[in-house]
Design goal:
2 copies of one chain form a homodimer. With 198 residues, chain A is of the alpha/beta class. Chain A is 51% helix and 16% strand. Chain A has a 5-stranded parallel beta sheet with strand order 2-5-1-6-7, sandwiched between helices. In chain A, strands 3-4 form a two-stranded antiparallel ribbon. The two termini of chain A are 14 Å apart.
């Protein structure tokens, strides 16, 4: 099975890159589809699932231990465990690209190609502003960029020592600053094909 | 001008990747050639130049400032400045790949494609052992891996805030763990071509 996972900074175009790469390889790309599937299983709506799986994790300062401890509630755990099952099921069905959701960690047994997509602040802001149909504005977007990435890093720390955004956690790190992602896809598809032949 | 710079972890195969990528693109690759050129200009031998440009930088603890200060001696400065001139001259002569020597920083005005090559400890060790014709042995190689990379990071800190080995300092970071570098070259050459058409 050839599984490609995409980790990404908020606004870096990781989702676009994942979709386009999957199209080029003729395989499905799973992103929000995972949320919808988990929502169906748990009988709650998509936005609640998203809130749980991408939320700022709960934390409490322990006087005994002398540092802040992060934890999931029982409900969070149920949803996260359901999400892991969905990701494993999708991956077992055939070659695919999976965006986010720590799929690289969850599917590590399947030896996936793990790509991290990132960009400088200005490029990410420009990309977010271009798709800002709800008129959030620059200030709100910059705040969201910071918060979401902090959440991703923190959530990841609960399940693995391979840190979010550090090169050693991935096989390829792609900087999309000032680049039209479309133009990189043929080379990335070739890279993926070569990598799986290793 | 299309300039590609290669930063690399010791033993990651960055030099091999640079040479092969240059061959695939039909352009020259400069690596040790830079040292030889600088040695000619300064009238000292290659190994002295290498020692100065890749040495552990001099440092002294300043009581007034309350922290360790790094510095170059006058001789170091002369050699480093000569090396920068050689790198700029080579780059101005035409498309090329330049391995190491902070070429990405020195040539930043020319908007080079900056690639970082890295690998996990075991892969780097295996690569070094395979070319260990002098019989240095595992322990010495592991020590060298650590020392050389620490030197590279420290030397870089003297000239730029873009840190060595951090993704944001590069356009593409390639993990060569367990990979035959040859197989990645056609895709990387395509990636470079696409990147320069941005």
């Amino acid at each position: 099975m050839r599984i490609i996972t995409i980790g990404r900074e908020f606004g870096s175009g990781g989702r676009e890159l994942g979709k386009r790469l999957a199209d080029a390889l003729g395989i499905p790309c799973y992103d929000k589809e995972i949320i919808t599937e988990v929502a169906k299983i748990k009988g709650i709506d998509d936005s609640s699932i998203e809130q749980i799986t991408e939320q700022d994790i709960n934390s409490v300062y322990s006087i005994t231990i002398g540092r802040t401890m992060c934890y999931y509630t029982q409900v969070d755990n149920d949803v996260i465990s359901a999400q892991q099952k969905v990701i494993k099921k999708l991956a077992s069905e055939g070659d695919c690209v999976i965006v986010g959701r720590q799929a690289d960690v969850i599917l590590s047994d399947m030896d996936p190609l793990n790509i991290f997509v990132y960009a400088d602040r200005d490029s990410r802001l420009a990309r977010c502003l271009a798709r800002d149909t709800e008129g959030e504005g620059e200030r709100a977007i910059l705040k969201k960029m910071k918060t979401v990435d902090r959440q991703r890093a923190a959530n990841r720390r609960l399940v693995t020592s391979k840190e979010w955004g550090k090169p050693e956690s991935y096989h390829l790190c792609v900087n999309t600053s000032g680049i039209d992602i479309k133009t990189l896809i043929p080379a990335l598809a070739d890279y993926a094909r070569a990598w799986f032949e290793k």
